[in-house]
Amino acid sequence: MTVGPAESRLAERKPALEAFLAAAAGAEAVEIVDARPLTDGAIQENWLLDLQVHGGTFAGPLEAVLRTDAASAVAVSRSRAEEFAVLSVVHRAGVTVPEPLWLCEDAGVLGRPFYVMRRVAGTAAPHRLMKEPELGGDRDALAGRLGMELARIHAIVPPRAELAFLGDPPDDPARAAIARYRGYLDALGGGFLALEWGLRWCELHAPPPQGPVLLHQDFRTGNYMVDRQGLTGILDWEFCDWGDPMSDLGWFCAACWRYAHPELEAGGIAPRGPFYHGYEAVSGRRIDPAAVAFWEIMAHLRWAVIALQQGERTLSGGEESLELALTGRLYPPGLEAEILRQTAPERWRTTP
Amino acid sequence: MTKRHEKEPGRGGEPGGARLLELARRELLEILLPQLQGEGRYRARLVANAMKIAARELDGGPAGRTAGAHRLRGLAAAALPGGVDLAALGEAEVAAALCTALRSGRLDGQRELYDLLVTLTGKRRETIG
Question: What is the value of pTM for the model shown?
Answer without folding.
Answer: 0.91
